[in-house]
Amino acid sequence: MKKIVFSAALAIMSMPFMSGQNFDPAKKLIMAERLINSYYVDSIPESNMVEKAIVAMLKTLDPHSLYSDAAETKELTTPLQGNFSGIGIQFNMLNDTLYVIQTIAGGPSEKVGLRAGDRILSANDSIISGVKRQNSSVMGILRGPKGTPVNVRVLRRGEAEPIDFRIIRDDIPMESVDVAYMADPTTGYIKVTRFAETTPEEFRRALEKLKKQGMSNLIIDLEDNGGGYMGAAVDLASEFLKKGDVVVSTKAPRMGSEVDYDVKKPGVMQNGRLVVMVNQYSASASEILSGAIQDNDRGLIVGRRTFGKGLVQRPFPFPDGSMIRLTVARYFTPSGRTIQKPYTKGEGDQYELDMLNRYESGEFMNADSIHFADSLKTETLRNRRTIYGGGGIMPDVFVPVDTTGYSRYYRDLVAKGILNRYCIEYVDNHREQLRKTYKTEEAFINQFEVSGQMTDDLIKMATGDSIKYDPEQFSRSRETIETIMKGLIGRGVFDNSTYSRVVNKINPVFREALGLINDKQRYSSLLTGEAAK
User: What global pTM score does this model have?
Assistant: First the structure.
């Protein structure tokens, strides 16, 4: 027996490795995997061991080189591909019950008569309500190949018995530009939530819609936009720049590659004032767009310093559906600034603490807390304004985090889902009345007010969920709470645009952007650099 084991070990150990300095480390890894698989005392799934080895290797690199298994890969790529096949609803899980918030216009659910406010009890053979399902689990049930059926059982207010629907899955667009409206008679507002394959076309449609309504100036909202496809950011920037202007450059030393991505044809909006809203969570493709606008002196950036993700990942898929996203290059703005903030290889945990460090240093509250070395100083390409590299895009106009309406009581209302739950139930109980009273979005925004009775009911619901009422903290947060309530109710009756139109009124970055874009003299002074002289 010992002889057999010894012989097998010798067979593995005698694999054709090169010796000395020419030893191949990759073969050493293969050998280690085979030894463990053959001789380790307990049984270990080989795939699990290999995946952990890949993850460990990637951790020695930069913070953005990652491995994802097949399920994770699908979750990562679906939002960026711009569509999926499903039944076409927006939903919310509340008290273990799936509420239909909206049916997507022209989608499969709308076609068969599903309505906002319906409660989905089951889909095919899977019970959905009452079993504490996660949103990801629900999506896994409702999504599926185009043309396949889903038998849905629904409980509807006013109906004594559940209603059965047969819905045929179809392609459902995932909009990345879901809010576009006129902020005032001449200023358009477009919010971009991510940079997907379909984003450029969605953005162009929004531009044309707003132009027909009299838009001459534009605010682009990239707050909390974590990025996406570089190509989408290049296409969007091209709508505002001149032919030949550089949008972004990539440098890949290992591949000997340096590429400038420039504007191939004149954009549709080269004139008019332009302001881009950003914050500390605006990253990657958001920083490409912001950097291109700033470096080319096409518009102004308002908000807080962006995230600082300037590493380019290339996907390398495996046959089993898993994938490595490996960093292969770096992004640079047109003036040559690096977008990537500093990091130390293999110290991903420290990298993750960057936002906390920024907060504790006072960066979110005061621009003077941000210090740049003189070596990072450079200039914009046309107006020679001073800007800095070293990671992230520093806005032209800094806007601190607004904490005036924040309190622990408000935090708990949001964190425990009370604010959202109250508004969903309010819309569910008053849907028909709301639609009759406010026939248009405009009427709702101008006329609807959150009553004292509504806030009393909210407080009562919160108290019932162990959130102790604090009069002083409620008073401090009252405007914020009532504005969010109105926005959520408006979204339930109309759409996401209603929410943004209501809530933007208390967003200090939006208020600054709107004020700046309407102050022609100040805008011009900042853009030309006169304000700094």
Answer: 0.85
